[in-house]
């Protein structure tokens, strides 16, 4: 099935056996207790540019976008894809309560590129509801403005049209910057007290319960200047306990707001210890939150991150930053207590975006391009997919949590149900291949594992990226769907007979290896069902194969077990026919 010859040729130049195998040691049980799910990593979209990605209205929805989301959904089991819609633009743009096309319209004028005001209307919710239906499950977290007074009809429309796919309303965005961003010109110093007052008024306007009566508000969405612990202890948790579903932070490692001046260059993103430090931001507040009784504390989430705020660093599209670093930081957040995190995407031309639609007005025909951060969503879905939730531990491989010189790091993912090791995620940040020795203790009864590689030839590579032997990049993949299995991709590796003495495998450099130890190793190729066509969409945009048919054998409505069964059946056929 795989081209083994070209694989060994590819490895020859790097295969200097000077590096002894790195011994990975894995505690039998997790050292932490935070439970996360396959949809931990979601996508954050800036409100102003929703039409670029999804189309203008229900009659012009972008098929490539649905394909991208369907490929993520196929990796999540029964969990919905998480999408956050928000940002500065969502905090101060007016809502018009009559549906029209386009669903989001840029306001005319000269505005700060990082805060482009729009108007938006109920068509947005109708399109989002159709997207969720089409790919069989999206959970939306949507900013509701606080910088301007929120509008009750907006909240009603959202709850009515999105129904159970509306997961939460995130009230306000970065209130700790309201003074700096001149959102409160008549207040010299906008304080936490001012904020609490406005928050109460806003909740009274928009309500605090979803269609089933459960609390659905998220906040405070602070990014920079306020101390989470102080905000929580000043009464945020107690005052709003009957409203809050999420405690929201958003945080980038650095900003690129000052004409290209920023401290951290590409090598910084390849040092695992930096993700450890980064995830400690607001630690006292996080610890305070996690010390509250589990049954009634809101879940902690990061609603927006990427390589740098104000549009990212120029080398954001690189494999090192977009793919490896995004995953390392996301896993680190899972370790310290977050329940969800969202990779941000803005208007075309911003280097850190997950995908690039064709240039031109929203809905222009043409090829879509897959950027490196998109792979983070695919990998995280597969890495954290377990039947009862996952607990992630940083294994501190070779003191990588503190030593910036370490070139490899590793995480273990434990199954919350039986507390056994389900997956290992191993980063090789070096430019050369590296052997990793896995202990016998992580292999269950069968003594086998499947290793999938996320790899590229260099840290700077932007296009030639493969995951599990497959690529979503390059000139031949233009619709988010028609993936290729190029000869340069690192093929999957099956490990066997590892129950007694463990097993060693070689990871190319740079790469991420996902070692699948539980039954999911038998899943085989993950097949993405076609998105079902949105019911009132007649014409889809993009050059992709239109969304036709019902999704064939891997029908969207199949239960997880049926899909497993069907895939196993296909695999069996393949084995016996080749
Ligand atoms: C919401 O805003 C729209 C337009 O700005 C306005 O027509 C409508 O009356 C507002 N609704 C409420 C309940 O404030
Ligand atoms: C703003 O108010 C807070 C709380 O009262 C205070 O701690 C802070 O020093 C003030 N900042 C400025 C710039 O006045
Ligand atoms: C979407 O709306 C924009 C702005 O009005 C327009 O330029 C573009 O042609 C529209 N796209 C489609 C496919 O109609
Ligand atoms: C990392 O490498 C530098 C340069 O070789 C060295 O000076 C430093 O001591 C090393 N740090 C650790 C923690 O090993
Ligand atoms: C890997 O090679 C790139 C050039 O492709 C270089 O910039 C980088 O420093 C190298 N990384 C390591 C860890 O040697
Ligand atoms: C991808 O990388 C391979 C070798 O690693 C090279 O042969 C091929 O030309 C590259 N493709 C693109 C589109 O850069
Ligand atoms: C733990 O549960 C997973 C998922 O159901 C299963 O694949 C694995 O075999 C179980 N491990 C043990 C030791 O029972
Ligand atoms: C779909 O698009 C084609 C070509 O642009 C057009 O001829 C046709 O009328 C459209 N169909 C519908 C139902 O809008």
Automatic annotation (TrEMBL):
<dbReference type="Pfam" id="PF16862">
    <property type="entry name" value="Glyco_hydro_79C"/>
</dbReference>
<feature type="compositionally biased region" description="Polar residues">
    <location>
        <begin position="480"/>
        <end position="489"/>
    </location>
</feature>
<dbReference type="InterPro" id="IPR031728">
    <property type="entry name" value="GlcAase_C"/>
</dbReference>
<feature type="domain" description="Beta-glucuronidase C-terminal">
    <location>
        <begin position="410"/>
        <end position="511"/>
    </location>
</feature>
<feature type="signal peptide">
    <location>
        <begin position="1"/>
        <end position="20"/>
    </location>
</feature>
<dbReference type="InterPro" id="IPR052974">
    <property type="entry name" value="GH79_Enzymes"/>
</dbReference>
<feature type="compositionally biased region" description="Low complexity">
    <location>
        <begin position="527"/>
        <end position="542"/>
    </location>
</feature>
<feature type="region of interest" description="Disordered">
    <location>
        <begin position="464"/>
        <end position="489"/>
    </location>
</feature>
<keyword id="KW-0732">Signal</keyword>
<protein>
    <submittedName>
        <fullName>Glyco-hydro-79C domain-containing protein</fullName>
    </submittedName>
</protein>
<feature type="region of interest" description="Disordered">
    <location>
        <begin position="527"/>
        <end position="550"/>
    </location>
</feature>
């Amino acid at each position: 099935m795989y081209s083994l010859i070209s694989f060994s040729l590819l490895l020859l130049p790097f295969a200097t056996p000077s590096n002894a195998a790195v011994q990975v040691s894995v505690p039998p049980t997790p050292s932490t207790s935070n439970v996360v799910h396959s949809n931990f990593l979601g996508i954050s979209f800036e409100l102003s540019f929703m039409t670029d990605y999804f189309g203008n209205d229900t009659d012009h929805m972008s098929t490539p976008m649905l394909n991208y989301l369907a490929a993520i959904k196929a990796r999540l089991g029964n969990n919905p894809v998480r999408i956050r819609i928000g940002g500065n633009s969502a905090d101060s743009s007016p809502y018009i309560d009559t549906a029209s096309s386009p669903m989001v319209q840029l306001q005319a004028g000269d505005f700060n590129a990082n805060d482009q005001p729009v108007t938006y209307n109920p068509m947005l919710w109708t399109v989002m509801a159709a997207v969720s239906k089409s790919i069989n499950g999206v959970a939306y977290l949507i900013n509701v403005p606080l910088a301007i007074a929120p509008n009750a009809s907006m909240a009603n429309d959202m709850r009515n049209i999105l129904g159970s796919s509306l997961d939460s309303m995130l009230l306000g965005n970065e209130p700790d910057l309201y003074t700096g961003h001149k959102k409160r010109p008549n207040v010299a110093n906008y304080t936490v007290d001012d904020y609490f007052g406005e928050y109460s008024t806003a909740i009274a306007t928009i309500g605090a319960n979803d269609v089933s009566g459960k609390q659905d508000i998220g906040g405070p969405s602070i990014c920079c200047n306020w101390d989470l612990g102080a905000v929580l202890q000043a009464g945020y948790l107690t005052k709003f306990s009957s409203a809050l579903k999420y405690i929201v932070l958003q945080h980038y490692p650095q900003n690129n707001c000052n004409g290209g001046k920023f401290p951290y260059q590409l090598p910084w993103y390849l040092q695992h210890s930096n993700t450890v430090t980064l995830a400690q931001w607001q630690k006292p507040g996080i610890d305070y939150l996690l010390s509250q009784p589990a049954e009634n504390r809101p879940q902690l989430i990061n609603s927006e991150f990427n390589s740098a705020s104000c549009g990212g660093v120029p080398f954001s599209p690189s494999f090192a930053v977009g793919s490896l670093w995004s995953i390392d930081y996301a896993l680190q957040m899972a370790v310290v207590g977050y329940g969800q995190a969202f990779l941000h995407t803005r208007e075309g031309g911003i280097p850190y975006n997950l995908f690039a639609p064709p240039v031109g007005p929203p809905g222009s025909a043409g090829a879509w391009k897959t950027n490196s951060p998109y792979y983070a969503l695919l990998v995280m879905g597969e890495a954290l997919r377990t039947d009862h939730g996952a607990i992630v531990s940083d294994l501190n491989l070779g003191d990588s949590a503190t030593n910036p010189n370490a070139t490899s790091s590793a995480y273990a993912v434990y199954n919350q149900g039986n507390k056994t090791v389900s997956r290992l995620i191993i980063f090789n940040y070096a430019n050369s291949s590296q052997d990793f020795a896995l202990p016998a203790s992580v292999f269950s009864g069968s003594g086998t594992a499947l290793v999938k590689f996320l790899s590229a030839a260099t840290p700077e590579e932007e296009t030639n990226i493969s995951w599990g032997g497959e690529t979503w990049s390059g000139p031949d993949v233009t619709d988010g769907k028609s993936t290729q299995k190029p000869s340069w991709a690192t093929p999957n590796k099956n490990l066997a007979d590892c129950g007694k003495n463990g097993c060693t495998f070689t990871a190319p450099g740079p790469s991420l290896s996902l070692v699948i130890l539980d039954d999911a190793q038998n899943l085989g190729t993950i097949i993405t069902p076609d998105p079902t066509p949105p019911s009132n969409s007649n014409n889809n945009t993009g050059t992709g194969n239109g969304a036709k048919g019902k999704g064939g054998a891997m029908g969207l409505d199949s239960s997880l077990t049926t899909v497993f069964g069907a895939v196993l059946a296909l695999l069996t056929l393949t084995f016996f026919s080749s």
